[in-house]
Design a protein that fits this description.
Order of helices and strands: HHEEEEEHHEE
Number of strands: 7
Number of helices: 4
Radius of gyration: 21 Å
Largest sheet: 3 strands, antiparallel
Strand order of the largest sheet: 3-4-5
Distance between the termini: 20 Å
Strand content: 15-25%
Shape: flat
Length: 189
C-alpha cells in the first residue's frame, strides 16, 4: 500500500517473503509456504529459511521461522559498525541504502495517511458546513473516524504520533519524520 526501499520495511518485507519462500519442509503449511515463491526472483533465498509454523486465515497467512543470513562489520573508532547485510544470492546490500529505502517508503506512507486525513477534514467541512474543531490530533481523528475517515490513523511511518497545528482556523498535520524530533528538517507537513 504504501525509489529505494528503506531498512525496516525492506528487512520486514524480505523477512516476510523469506518466511514464505520455503525450504525442505516437514509440514503441509511449510510445503505450501515453500511453493509460494517458486519461480519468483526471490526463490534463491528459500534455502536460508527454516520454518517452524505456518497458519492461514482466509486470504492471509503468517509464517514463523528462522532466516540465516550474513552481516559485514567494519571497525570504526574502536567499535564494530554494521555496514552490509547479505540477502541470499542477491548479494550484499548496504545498511545505509536499506535504511534510506525504508525511510523513503515510510515517508510515502506517511504522506498518503496525511492526505487521507486532509481529505476527511474536507469531507467533514462539506457535510457539516464548518471544519472540525479539535483540541489536538487525537480529538481530530476521533471526530473524523469512522464517518469521514475509514480507519483510525494515530502514528506516522516511524510509529511517532502525529502533531497538529491550527493557523487561521486551518489545521496542519505534522510528522516528526525519521528522527522523531519536532521542528527539524526531516519533518513532513
Amino acid at each position: 500500500m504504501y525509489g529505494k526501499k528503506s531498512i525496516g520495511w525492506t528487512l520486514l518485507t524480505v523477512s516476510c517473503i523469506l518466511s514464505c519462500a520455503g525450504c525442505a519442509s516437514r509440514s503441509k503449511g511449510e510445503r505450501l509456504a515453500g511453493n509460494l515463491l517458486r519461480g519468483s526472483e526471490l526463490e534463491s533465498l528459500s534455502p536460508l529459511i527454516l520454518f517452524s509454523d505456518f497458519n492461514s486465515f482466509g486470504s492471509m497467512a503468517t509464517a514463523e521461522g528462522t532466516v540465516t543470513t550474513g552481516f559485514r562489520f567494519q571497525r570504526e573508532n574502536n567499535r564494530w559498525v554494521l555496514k552490509e547485510v547479505r540477502l541470499g544470492e542477491l548479494g550484499w546490500e548496504s545498511v545505509q541504502d536499506l535504511k534510506e529505502a525504508l525511510d523513503n517508503i515510510r515517508a510515502r506512507h506517511t504522506r498518503q495517511d496525511m492526505q487521507s486525513i486532509l481529505d476527511a477534514i474536507e469531507k467533514y467541512n462539506v457535510q457539516e458546513g464548518v471544519p472540525p474543531s479539535a483540541s489536538d490530533f487525537v480529538d481530530l481523528i476521533d471526530k473524523l473516524s469512522p464517518k469521514y475517515l475509514n480507519r483510525v490513523i494515530r502514528v506516522d511511518g516511524w510509529h511517532h504520533e502525529y502533531r497538529m497545528r491550527i493557523s487561521n482556523g486551518k489545521p496542519t498535520i505534522i510528522s516528526n519524520g525519521p528522527d522523531g524530533k519536532e521542528d527539524t528538517p526531516d519533518d513532513i507537513r
